[in-house]
Design brief:
By secondary structure, the chain is mainly α. The protein has a domain at 6-11 and 20-28 and 75-203. The chain contains six helices and eight strands. It has helices at residues 34-47, 60-104, 106-109, 122-131, 141-150, 162-181, and strands spanning 2-4, 7-9, 18-19, 23-26, 119-120, 188-189, 196-197, 200-203. The protein has a two-stranded antiparallel ribbon. Strands 3-7 form a two-stranded parallel ribbon. α5 crosses α6 (162-181). The longest helix has 45 residues, at 60-104. The termini are far apart.
Amino acid sequence: MDIVGDRRFVEVPGGKTHELPPLLVNADRKRKRLDRVMSMASEIVESEDILEDAALGISDFDLSRRKMDLAVNLVEQYFTIVRHWQWGDSILEWIRQCETTFEARLELRNLLCTNVWPHAGRSSFVQLLADKAVDTDGVSLGEAVGLRLAFRQPPPMSCCTNQFLFYLNSTVASSAFQTWVHMTPAPISCLPPERFEVKVVKMSLQ
C-alpha cells in the first residue's frame, strides 16, 4: 500500500496499465423546448413573489425586465443541474462497468473486496476520474454523482423552487454523495491513477 500525504492507494499486482471501459457522457447541449422551460421559470418568478420587495418604487417596465432577467437566470441554473445529472448518470453506469471489469480480471478482483485491506470502494472510481483530470466542462464530479443518486431522472423545472435552483441543489447533491461514500466500510483507499487508463467519450444524442 502506498501512502501519499493523507491518502492511501491500493497495491495493484504486476506492472501493467489497465484500460478501463470508456466513460460515455451525453454532451448534447441542445436545449430542447427552451420556450417551455422559460415559461416555467417565469411562472416560478410570479408565483413565489421573488421580487415583491424590490417591486416597490420602480416602473412596470423595469419590473418586467427584472422578472425576465431572473427567469433567464433560473433557466441557466436549471440547465446546469441537468448537465450535472447527465454526468452523474454516466459516471454511475461507468462504475458498474468498471466493477464488472475488475471482477473479470484476477489481478484486480480483490481490490474491491471490503474484507481485504486496503480496499477501494465505488467512490474510488470518482476520485480516479479527478486524479486523471478528465475534462468535465466545469461539472463537479461529486455533485454530479450526488444529483444522480438523489434523482432517478432530472427533476422537471416545474418541480423546482427558486431556492432549490439557486442554493439548495448543491447542498442536496453534496449530502447524497457523502452519504454514498460512507456506505463503503472505511478506510477506503484510492486507485493509483498511473495504473489505469480512462477515456471519456462525449456523445451528442440526436
